[in-house]
Amino acid sequence: MTIDAWLQAAIADARSRGLPALEPLLHVLARAMRELREADLNDDASR
Amino acid sequence: MPAVDLDTLTIESFAERLRAGELTAEQVTDLCLQRIADGNPRLNAFILVMADGARRQAREADRELAAGVDRGALQGVPISVKDLIDVAGTSTTAASRVRDGHVARHDAPVVAALRTAGAVVIGKANLHEFAFGTTNEESAFGPARNPHDPSRSPGGSSGGSAAGIAAGMALASLGTDTGGSIRIPAAACGIVGLKPRYGEISADGVVPLSRRLDHVGPLARTVTDTALVYRALRGHPRPTSPPPVPVSTLHLGVPRSYFCDVLDAEVRARFDEAVERLRAAGARIDEVAVRHAALIPATYMHLVLADAAAFHAHTLASMPERYSSGVRARLELGRYVLAEDYVRALDTQNVLRREVDSALAGRDALLLPALPIPAPLLGATAVDINGIQEPIRNLMLRLTQLFDLTGHPAIAMPAGLTSAGLPCSIQLAGADTETLLPVARACEPQITGPLPQPRSG
User: Fold this and answer.
1) What is the pTM of this model?
2) pLDDT by residue (tens digit) across B357-389?
3) Distance (Å, rounded) from C-alpha B427 to C-alpha B423?
4) Complex ipTM
5) Do B325 and A21 touch (CB under 8 A)?
6) pLDDT score of A44
7) A26 and B345 in contact by Cβ < 8 A?
8) Any residues with CB less than 8 A from the CB of B85 and at least 6 apart, and which?
9) Which among A36, A38, A40 is the top mutation candidate for probing chain B, defined by the most B β-carbons within 10 Å of its own β-carbon?
């Protein structure tokens, strides 16, 4: 799942559960996900 | 009997004076209880005061000592317990309405260890709800306040523990530290807080935040006092404090990159002064790097959010209205963490552990600030640093959470005051708690000076 797709789905889910206040926190978590995924220490299955 | 000054009394001096017949455990316990009665309405450091039990335990300590039963330095010492830790017969509230009606059937092993050492359990200390916050503002019992300035946070999550010690309501406290919750309030309140190495102190009987990151440890006025409590928790039958090593033999590493990038100007000045004082005393100090330090917050966030969400899943579904709104939001956020990112966080945790090991190789400890800012105002969400508004939650955790991720022991100790009289603090992290404590004892007189006195305590 891409981060953008995850974020859209998560925001929609939070709204449907009556938790719109989660939206800014989900953006913070999305940034943290991006940092982990773009780190230079991730595995590369082709190598 | 000579007067007892609760603003300067340490466990070490209490133990000496108790055995010299200059004071009694009952007398000091009564004085602490009076301090609580006078100051708790303003500081809200205690959720539960166990006055009758404390007086009974203090009298028993005095009786035992008179009969020749000497349990060591903690005998008769009034100590508070963060209300996240089970004390038999009392509610472990975790500062949350979610825990209404809970009564602990047994003492947590750490509380049992304190009792074996003869300590007097004086009460349960306020905290940030479920230890999931760094300011102590979100508590079902209201915020604890900083004795140095009651309009400010005492830090968190063990905020009541630190505020109570700084205000002379107890000589020590048991706290917990998952991202810095012992060291942050110790720093904000001008006392000492020790996070031992991961796993060496039992966390059984403690409401978890993240079982892979939770640590239990002491807060007290001095390094010696924290060492005495730590060793009692480790089961030493008559705990003593390790002697300091000579400062001139110390080799310390300062990880400036990342850890000194975002600091309040006065905190930076006190830290630089501490480094220079240690260097002038003969310590060898050089710069080290933790290469992936920028990944610390993302790694911590993934682990603690998901671990906490898993623990709270049932009550989030059945009684969500009983959580404070901010804590509930963070717990709900944890339900959106994806498995592949959680695995990345676990892998990064291992990388960070190896990088701290490398930074420590050949050195006695790492030296860094403990808290980037002085105690923040209650209600503030951001603070200005060099013209940039920085979120307080991020700042509070920034310098401490690494060592929860890696498990290395770390201790926060006072390092002077700001011009407004607010405490600043430095942190030492080492490979092993027993070797870190003599290093901290050696550094303490170089950087601490007189104990910070609350203006309003």
Assistant:
1) 0.97
2) 999 999 999 999 999 999 999 999 999 998 999
3) 13
4) 0.96
5) yes
6) 84
7) no
8) B92, B108, B110, B111, B174, B176, B205, B206, B207, B216
9) A36
For B295, the token pair is 């990944």
What is residue B457's predicted lDDT score, i.e. its pLDDT?
42
Interface of B with A in 198-237 (CB under 8 A): none
Catalytic annotation present for B158: no
Quick one: residue B142, left, alpha or beta (phi over 0 = left, psi -120 to 50 = alpha)?
A: left
Among B69, B144, B163, CA closest to B378: B144
Query: Between A and B, how many residue pairs show a Cβ–Cβ distance under 8 A?
Result: 57
Residues on chain A touching B330 (C-beta within 8 angstroms): 25
Taking only Cα atoms into account, the Rg of chain A, rounded to an integer number of angstroms, comes to 13
Active site residue B318: no
**Token couple for B117:** 């050492």
SS3 for A12?
Answer: helix
The predicted-structure confidence for B132-144, as pLDDT tens digits, reads as follows 999 999 999 999 9
Query: What are the DSSP E strand ranges found in B126-205?
Result: 172-177, 192-195
Which ranges of chain B have pLDDT less than 70? Answer: 1-2, 449-457
Flag if B337 and A29 touch (Cβ within 8 Å).
yes
